Predict the structure.
Amino acid sequence: MKKGNCSVSRSQTCERRVNEVSEPSSQGISNAQAALAAVSAQGNWADTKKDFPKQRLLIIITGGPGTGKSGVATGFLSFLERDDIVRLSYDDVKEKEFDRFGFDNETQKDRLNRFSLEEFYLMLGKAMWEGRTILTEYPFYQRHKPRLQELIDEYSYDAATIFLYTDIHTVYQRFINRNDGDRHPGHLLSRYHIEDFSPETLIHEKQVPDFEEFAGGIAHKEYDVGLGISIPVDVSDFSKISYEEIYQRIIDYY
């Protein structure tokens, strides 16, 4: 895997730049399970679903790799008790296309990722055209901000950015643990076709960056895209996340 811009001599500088990009501690359970446990631990907030002042709202959950975006999204939706919110994930789109088309090298994989991103934007635009409340989660950064802003403007949407962060060493360990779990193999391989894939392939061909590569690969990325209200959330410990506070900040802003 290509190394980032952080050499060993610059590791402390890089560490400072990426110090706010991690995810909640799972302690042996999945992010989704931990997030749901956090929701339950917060007690009975209400017996009814949580409404927003405006239906045309895009909720963006972002943060570096391994920040627990999917788990926090699951936890927040459970808190809201809203089955009408559209949940969109760019990773879900990529994984579908990994299985549909496959790839033989990094060039083909990069091209498939670009196609998948365009498909994701189309899906997002369709949900906006329908006037739905939308929640999306991905490590969005400044590269994605202009297109997201364009869609927000085109469809007259409001936005809320929930930015997840913690220290770089914690997030790297969680990133490694996630890759050793049930993550889709297409993310981890330079060649993948579902018809000839076997678990043994991961043992011999899985690409896992070392700490310097990982830190260098995210040091230049600003994950707080700052669309609409920006809500930073420390995810060092799932049990300390207040979904009530996140919800209240959104409704107070709009």
Observations:
- Residues 26 and 34 are 6 Å apart (CA to CA).
